[in-house]
Amino acid sequence: PQAERPPPESECLYVAAVLREPRLLTRDVFRVCDELSHMGLRMVLAQTTSGQGVEEALFEATEVVKRALLEAGRRLSAGGSELEGEFVQVCRDIMVRRIDERLVYIKRATEQTPGAFDLTEETRQLLSERKELLALRKRVLDELRPASSGTGTKAPMQPV
């Protein structure tokens, strides 16, 4: 049997923060929870947010996921605004990484197009998606920018 791959560090931090303070999900304005790539983490998050306790959700998780979440939990702040800031930063990192991965795919898929008159419908759609992703990336970076000292926080933008 193939060994389970460990979950990405940023995704572990995301889930560990939510396990510590479930209210943080309300700060996930871009629905990063839908972008988690590791199925084990998605399952722990789903079980925890559906009313099962943290202990029960972790009981059903694999050892690889348990170890990764334990390590991530050690790296997080105990709670409060510091944990919330870390959570928002992790949301930003995950979302920007997903957008960048898709932009790389679109670049590779469209760089073979010789000229504007040779665009296929699929290429036009990819280029349109690229434009939307670039705008979303800018919104994510602007919205989830780490707070500067001495400035007020603005209300979160609604996702598209």
From TrEMBL:
Name the UniProt record assigns to this protein: DNA primase
Protein's organism: Corallococcus praedator
